[in-house]
Amino acid sequence: MITYQEFLATYENGLPTASGVESVVMDHKASPEYELAVIADQYDRQKNATIMAFKKYIHTVTGASIVDPYAANHKIPSNMFRRLNVQRTQYSLGNGLSFQDKAVKDKFGKEFDATVQKIGYAANIHGLAFGFWNLDRLYCFRLTEFAPIYDENTGMLMAGVRFWQVNDNQPLNMWLYTVDGIMRFTKKNGDQSAKALDTLFTPYVGIVTKTQADGEQITGGENYPTLPIVPLWGSELKQSTLVGMREGVDAYDLIRSGLANDLTEAAFVFWFVNNVQGMNETDKSEWLDKLRKTHVAITEGDGSGGGSSVTPYTQDVPHEARTAYLDRIKAGLYEDFGGLDVHTIAAGSTNDHIDAAYQPLDENADDFEYQVIEFVQGLGELQGIEEDKATPIFKRNRISNQLEQTQMVLSAGSYLPATTVRKHLPFISVDEIEEIEKELANEEVARYRALEEELNAIKAEKTATPDQPAQLKEQTEQPAQQPESNQ
């Protein structure tokens, strides 16, 4: 690996050379980390390298080994590698990242969660990935397309070259990223050496000036205080998850494919013909080939002097032991990787049983999430966000007995604030709580206004009295009549 100090030694007149940049790329592509990342991509695409290259050989009478032309060669690559890595990544990042201050999340852009998932997944399968912060958006740089340049004394990432090539007939594009800016290089197909496309570094942040005469023009630029590329390791081991897992996946694929091959090659009924003349070594080889093609064999006589006879034989393919071993390999892969096999959780299990099944996945998630925290804090530093404010909050994507968990939270609701109760309900995410509280507040205001209007209507009805009839009014104003005297 070429260090930063060694790379600076290739500079001429204070600028990087095309040959120096190309050397960084070629050295990176020859590294064990890059080669392992390429193989990991094959397993990730369900093109498992070992089973795809598998061939069945036979030994001839001359002692040579040749590919068996009649052997079945089913290749059944499993999706175990991708399944387990998706589970580990999405368990921590599937619901996105949250922050105590919602304004911090807004600074990272709308596509932040999706890009972090891409970087996190690449970090798991490759062992390392990179995030490039480009003014207001995050980009994912995979180890198969980015050659890092580290300081030989501190081990910090000081620069790097992103490279890509559409195919072998197209140019090799190389972009150098340093704290001074970006420079572009290329090497066309057939050329002996690369060449620079830029004569100076291009700043990361362009300064745009707008005038009435000329419109918008880039009149300057500035860079970040540090390199705007932050590494993300998949775990504290700093290695691909394919390490240690590849052999188990290969064994699983080979046994499953071998069982399919045996079922194809087995005829279930072989016909053996007795009491025929003998054969030499060449005849025996041809006899074996014919048996496997036609499932009919000619055998020598048994010495009894009897006539020729035809006898059928059946053959059962052994599968019980292979099926059991496949189950053991699968269980071992989940256990060693720290994954959760949902088939081990019975329907109706309590949360205690579910939590116990999640324990290995939780332990590995803790390791992974610590790496993500350092990564996000590094991105926040580029934007001037304080470390404590840039610390993300994870909501792990897990199954649970939601009815049991909901009942437990609601039973303690009288002792807790309403916001705390909502935070612990299993079907509500952290990002939803603020919106829910706003809707509840609006509903409360609406109910208060409706009640106030109703009370005002009742009050007005009680204070308002209708006019009395004129005749009744006159009667009330006349004095009461006196009874007539009998005299």
What is the spatial order of strands in the main beta sheet?
6-7-8-9-10
Number of domains: 3
Distance between the termini: 143 Å
Q: Could you describe the largest sheet, including whether it forms a barrel?
A: 5 strands, antiparallel
The tally of helices reads: 15
Approximate shape: flat
Give the overall average pLDDT.
83
What is the strand tally?
17
**Rg to the nearest angstrom?**
39 Å
Strand percentage lies at 15-25%
Q: Level of helix content? A: 40-55%
Category from helices, strands and their pairing: alpha+beta
Spans with pLDDT under 50 lasting ≥5 residues? none
**Chain oligomer state:** single chain
Provide structural commentary.
- There is one protein chain.
- The chain is of the alpha+beta class and 487 residues long.
- It has a five-stranded antiparallel beta sheet, covered by helices on one side. It has a three-stranded antiparallel beta sheet with strand order 5-4-13, with helices on one face.
- Helix content is 44%, strand content 19%.
- It contains 15 helices and 17 strands.
- Helix 5 crosses helix 11.
- It has three domains: 4-203 and 229-233, no CATH class; 246-335; 401-454, no CATH class.
- The chain has helices at 4-8, 18-29, 32-44, 49-52, 80-93, 102-107, 112-126, 246-265, 281-294, 320-337, 351-382, 402-411, 418-424, 430-463, 470-477, and strands spanning 57-59, 65-67, 97-98, 128-134, 137-142, 146-150, 157-164, 172-178, 181-187, 195-196, 205-211, 215-222, 229-233, 269-276, 296-300, 309-314, 393-394.
- Strand 1 (57-59) and strand 2 (65-67) form a beta hairpin.
